[in-house]
Every structure is written in structure tokens, then in C-alpha cells.
Automatic annotation (TrEMBL):
Domain called Macro: residue spans: 1-173
Pfam families: Macro
MF term (GO), any: O-acetyl-ADP-ribose deacetylase activity
Native source species: Dyella psychrodurans
Coiled-coil ranges per UniProt: none
Signal peptide stretch: none
Entry protein name: O-acetyl-ADP-ribose deacetylase
Source domain of life: Bacteria
Length: 173
């Protein structure tokens, strides 16, 4: 599986695409979402606003993905996905999180992306336990990438604690 764990600010990666752990409105927020919007500049917000709403205030439902240019980011594209909010693990959170990874890979393949980085989707303000999220992510990516070995994927962690968790999940796969 062409997947690796790196510890770096995702906004500094010069890849074909970086994944944004977004909110359903795609209009920026905190954490990685806010950082990506700040570095990308106002063009990203304008591109997100131009995406059609599928429900009032929702441009990207949980588990789906949308693609925009990267604007001032070194990455060519931003793939926005909305992870599930953690409610204890009994509301289908694992399947929704897996759908995020599958949707991002499908969109990447559709747009001829060869290299991409994922943050720890839903592990910030959405409260998903990182150990559980890492297991879901690695298993889903292993399955999704079996048909797309040309895709180089990096699991991007902002700190050493998170990098250790994700590396452990990758080692267990």
C-alpha cells in the first residue's frame, strides 16, 4: 500500500492534492480547515461559495467530497470532505468516516491526482477518537488503493502524538 505517515503542516505540501477536513458549508472554520483557507487565500472561499448547496447551508454532506483549486497553496487541488461528529461510535460514525476516505480517493482518481495527503479527519473539534479513526482510515485506504496503486498517499499529522497513533495503525495493517 503506497501510504506513509508524515508530521508536517499540511498547507506546506507540494502535492497534487491535500484533503481538507471541512464543515458542510465549506466556508472555512477552525483547525486544519481554517489553516487551509488562510494559506489558500480568498480564491478558495470564493470557489467554495460557488459550489451548489445540496441543502440549506450544505455544500458537502458528511461522507462526501468536493474538489477546488489550491489557489495560493503549493498543492494543485484541495479535496474537501466532511467527517462525522463523534457520538460514541453507535451512530454509524465508522462507515461515514470510511466514506470520506473512499470519496476522496474516487475524486482524486477522477482528476488524475497522483499524490495526496489526508489530515486526521474528524479527530479535532468533531471528537473522533484518533486510535479508532486511524484504524478506519488505514483499512479503508488499503481497500480503496488496491485498485489504484499509482496513487501516493500521505497521512499528515500535525504533532508527534498523532503521528505515532497513525503510524501504529499503519504498522498493524
Amino acid at each position: 500500500m503506497p501510504v506513509s505517515v508524515i508530521q508536517v503542516d499540511i498547507t506546506r505540501l507540494a502535492l497534487d492534492a491535500i484533503v481538507n477536513a471541512a464543515n458542510p458549508g465549506l466556508l472555512g472554520g477552525g483547525g486544519v480547515d481554517g489553516a487551509i483557507h488562510r494559506v489558500a487565500g480568498p480564491g478558495l472561499l470564493a470557489a467554495c461559495r460557488a459550489l451548489p448547496e445540496v441543502a440549506p447551508g450544505v455544500r458537502c454532506p458528511t461522507g462526501e467530497a468536493r474538489l477546488t483549486p489550491g489557489f495560493a497553496l503549493p498543492a494543485r487541488y484541495v479535496i474537501h470532505t466532511v467527517g462525522p461528529i463523534w457520538h460514541g461510535g453507535h451512530d454509524g460514525e465508522a462507515e461515514l468516516l470510511a466514506r470520506c476516505y473512499r470519496s476522496c480517493v474516487a475524486l482524486a482518481v477522477e482528476h488524475d491526482v497522483r499524490s495526496m495527503a489526508f489530515p486526521a479527519i474528524s479527530c479535532g473539534v468533531y471528537g473522533y477518537p484518533p486510535e479508532q479513526a486511524a484504524s478506519v482510515a488505514v483499512a479503508t485506504l488499503r481497500d480503496a488503493l488496491s485498485a489504484h496503486p499509482e496513487l501516493d498517499v500521505q497521512l499528515c499529522c500535525f504533532d508527534s502524538r498523532m503521528a505515532a497513533i497513525w503510524q501504529h495503525a499503519l504498522n498493524q495493517a
